[in-house]
Design brief:
The chain has about 400 residues and is of the alpha/beta class. Helices cover about 40% and strands about 15% of the residues. Strand 3, helix 5 and strand 4 form a beta-alpha-beta unit. The protein binds pyridoxal-5'-phosphate.
Length: about 400
């Protein structure tokens, strides 16, 4: 198995020793992805629909990217995958489709732990008389708890929208239990896997959610979003693409104007990185599982070191889990009693380490936790290429910030 340092060598942007610790905002990309996109522009940059070689190659690339993402999420025969400009774009498309079939008085439960990407699209349906019910986060577990969901469900609940992992807290919720509770009440579950996907293998069949999405640019790829939906869940809905396109033309009907072709080339090339991490050429979903087992192993050391420091530091409060583990991914938000988060991030940035502060579009969550979203939190989010040495550099700067 490779070390973090060996993995780093795959990422050209990290070669100068840049400590990139803002991965939940968007990860870096390996050379195989960069090269695949460049190669696409050089050899396949044509519109689909023709029978000349570049046009055929373009279509094949797009189809192969969809097939790869479906396998990456372990979709199997359970359903299909659509791609788009971002996760937020895809959720808007889905919510608009629900807007066509729901009725005034129907209810949608939206977790307070959501990034706005899985909240605003649903809240916009209030204009049709649809009632949006807020699902508070559990103050003790900091997860979305099926029991509190049960208490909110009514015969009018149609959709439950929640994050698998909050992008501020890093705690993994039990997606399967939530999907089961929603389904038993006749509601569809829509799970945001954006903060989960860079750290663990997605398994949509095991999670059981009706819809599950993630952003490819946070998983070492280009700026796009991907959404899986179970076959039965897509069936009553229709996408927004051109009127002449039949509603059963999947995924075309759901991808208005088409997808980023060069982006598809980059998404597809992630299979080479998965294969690299696994230590064998990419084959199938087993490769994904093995690669992400390795990812979790690589992240554990730096994650543990960071938490060990922050939890022992006077004046610092860590928002989420205080230890790495199967239900805690490698992202840590914290505040200091005296030093504003803005100042923490600014000083750390000046010293050449990439972190950010703020609300990270999870405004309601911070409000629920009694934190002013304006200053928000400082967030350190790791990927498999981060090292304990980088965390050491970060700690040295934080020591100065907290002392000053
Ligand atoms: C947890 C979470 N959900 C959704 C999104 C939105 O993703 P996108 O930028 O692809 O719309 C983000 C982006 O930061 C996120 O962190």
């Amino acid at each position: 198995m490779y070390s973090s340092k060996e993995v780093r060598a795959c990422f050209p942007s990290l070669k100068d020793g840049f400590a990139f610790l803002d991965n939940a905002g968007g990860s870096q990309v390996p050379a195989v992805v960069i090269d695949a996109i460049a190669d696409y522009f050089r050899t396949k940059y044509a519109q689909t629909g023709g029978t000349y070689p570049a046009s055929v190659a373009a279509r094949e690339t797009i189809e192969a990217a969809h097939a790869f993402v479906a396998q990456f999420m372990n979709a199997g025969q359970a359903g299909g995958v659509i791609l788009g400009a971002s996760s937020t774009t895809l959720v808007h498309g889905l919510a608009n489709a629900f807007g066509e079939i729901l009725h005034a008085g129907d209810e949608i439960i939206v977790s307070d732990a959501n990034h706005e990407g899985n909240a605003t699209p649903w809240r916009r349906l209030e204009r049709f008389g649809i009632k949006v019910v807020a699902w508070p986060i559990d103050a003790v577990t900091l997860a979305c708890e099926p029991d509190s969901l049960r208490a909110l469900l009514t015969p009018r609940t149609r959709v439950v929208a929640f994050p698998h992992v909050s992008n501020l807290l890093g705690r993994v919720s039990d997606a399967r239990a939530i999907a089961d509770v929603a389904r038993a009440a006749g509601a569809v579950s829509v799970c945001d896997g954006v903060a989960y996907a860079p750290h663990r293998a997605i398994d949509v069949q095991a999670f059981g959610c009706d819809f599950y999405f993630y952003s490819t640019y946070k998983v070492f790829g280009p700026h796009m979003g991907a959404m899986f939906g179970r076959r039965e869940a897509w069936a009553p809905l229709t996408g927004a693409n051109h009127g002449f396109i039949p509603r059963d033309a999947f995924p075309t009907k759901w991808e208005p104007g088409g997808v980023s072709h060069e982006g598809c080339a980059g998404v597809l090339a992630l299979q080479w990185h998965v294969g690299f991490l696994e230590g064998e050429p990419y084959q199938n979903y087993v490769s994904v599982q093995r690669a992400f087992d390795h990812v979790a192993d690589l992240e554990r050391g730096p994650h543990a070191r960071l938490l060990e420091y922050l939890t022992a530091k006077n004046g610092v409060s860590v928002l989420g889990p205080t230890q790495p583990g199967p239900d805690a991914v490698a992202l840590v938000s914290f505040r200091h009693a005296r030093v504003p988060s803005a100042r923490i991030a600014a000083v750390v940035n000046r010293r050449g380490l990439g972190i950010k502060h703020g609300h990270f579009y999870s405004v309601r969550l911070l409000q629920a936790l009694g934190i002013d979203p304006e200053d928000g939190v400082a967030r350190v989010s790791l990927a498999h290429y981060n090292t304990v040495e980088e965390i050491g550099r970060l700690i040295a700067v934080l020591e100065e910030v907290f002392a000053g």
